[in-house]
């Protein structure tokens, strides 16, 4: 196993961030949920409510045992369900991959990383606080900056534009591929493949 592989050998927790309910389903902030839904389709199963406060699905991806999780709380409170789910499945923070929207990357760009700050992302802030560490993996899905003087808090709760929506299925698919590469081949190999693209 390579040193930069999430959860070396054990099962991995893949978390998608978003807000629950149909009202938020198409929002930029919910792209983490969209990627998890794509990964769930690849695993072949349905999410089920879990006592930890998330919708979960267990299965296999990239020859690894995985737990897919979508917190049922609002974005700003993601930490509780993530840490409770990790504890239940006995998964250390180093075995967690969080998929989230990223304002500081142009739409459709993708960055994989381990650790780092929350960059003003309240979902990440909540997870870091609940886990007691920032040393977990992230798949950062670029959503771009808000136009003009629009407040970023409003921008993330808007749906993707019609132009972006045409590209969105391809970008979601590519992000799911990147997550699979990350857990199957490690961070460096996945970055070499997907950061150059």
TrEMBL record:
Please indicate if the UniProt record lists Lyase as a keyword.
no
The question of whether tRNA-binding is a record keyword is answered with yes
Where is the site Stabilizes the basic form of H active site to accept a proton?
101
Q: Membrane-spanning residues where?
A: none
Catalytic residues as annotated in Swiss-Prot or TrEMBL: 29
What this protein catalyses is: an N-acyl-L-alpha-aminoacyl-tRNA + H2O = an N-acyl-L-amino acid + a tRNA + H(+)
Extract the InterPro entries matched here. Answer: Pept_tRNA_hydro (IPR001328), Pept_tRNA_hydro_CS (IPR018171), Pept_tRNA_hydro_sf (IPR036416)
Q: Site annotation (Discriminates between blocked and unblocked aminoacyl-tRNA): which residues?
A: 19
Q: What is its EC number?
A: 3.1.1.29
Record localization = Cytoplasm
The terms describing its cellular component in GO are: cytoplasm
Coiled-coil positions are: none
Identify the residues that bind tRNA.
24, 74, 76, 122
* Major localization listed first in the record, in broad terms: cytoplasm
Pfam families in UniProt: Pept_tRNA_hydro
| Gene Ontology terms describing biological process | protein quality control for misfolded or incompletely synthesized proteins; rescue of stalled ribosome
Write the record's keywords in alphabetical order, separated by commas: Cytoplasm, Hydrolase, RNA-binding, tRNA-binding
Output one GO MF annotation: peptidyl-tRNA hydrolase activity
Function in brief = Catalyzes the release of premature peptidyl moieties from peptidyl-tRNA molecules trapped in stalled 50S ribosomal subunits, and thus maintains levels of free tRNAs and 50S ribosomes. Hydrolyzes ribosome-free peptidyl-tRNAs (with 1 or more amino acids incorporated), which drop off the ribosome during protein synthesis, or as a result of ribosome stalling.
Return the similarity comment.
Belongs to the PTH family.
**What does the record note on quaternary structure?**
Monomer.
- Entry protein name: Peptidyl-tRNA hydrolase
Task: Please report the organism this UniProt entry assigns to the protein.
Answer: Amycolatopsis acidiphila
């Amino acid at each position: 196993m390579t040193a930069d592989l999430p959860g070396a050998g054990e099962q991995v927790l893949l978390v998608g961030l978003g807000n629950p309910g149909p009202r938020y389903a198409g929002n930029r902030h919910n792209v983490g949920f969209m990627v998890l839904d794509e990964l769930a389709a690849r695993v072949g199963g349905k999410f089920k409510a879990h006592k930890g406060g998330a919708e979960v699905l267990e299965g296999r991806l990239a020859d690894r045992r995985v737990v897919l999780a979508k917190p049922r709380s609002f974005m700003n409170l993601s930490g509780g369900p993530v840490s409770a789910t990790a504890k239940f499945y006995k998964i250390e923070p180093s075995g967690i991959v969080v998929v989230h929207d990223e304002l500081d990357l142009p739409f459709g760009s993708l960055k994989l990383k381990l650790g780092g700050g929350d960059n003003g992302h309240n979902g990440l802030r909540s997870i870091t606080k609940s886990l007691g560490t920032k040393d977990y993996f992230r798949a950062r899905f670029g959503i771009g900056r808000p136009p003009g003087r629009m407040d970023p808090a409003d921008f993330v709760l808007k749906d993707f534009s019609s132009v972006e929506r045409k590209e969105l299925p391809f970008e979601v698919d590519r992000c799911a591929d990147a997550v699979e590469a990350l857990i199957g081949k490690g961070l460096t190999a996945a970055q070499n493949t997907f950061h150059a693209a």
